[in-house]
Amino acid sequence: VGTTFERYLNNTQQRIKTYFETHILEYFGLLKISNITPLYCQKRLNSWAESLPIYKHLRIYVNMVFKYRF
Description:
With 70 residues, the protein is mainly alpha-helical. Helices cover 77% and strands 0% of the residues. α2 runs antiparallel to α3.
């Protein structure tokens, strides 16, 4: 079944995939990066902050996508 580290890594990957599938792609998935404004991002972050305890994680992953893109 794998080492503790392998299980931890698999759980982490699955959690991040779930964040993208259930939260991030819902708002960003169909948009071109060039059409995403800071105001749009802030509105999404504010919405997540009101309802999701994991909003900081979502912000980090969205930010990573932008850093990778640019």
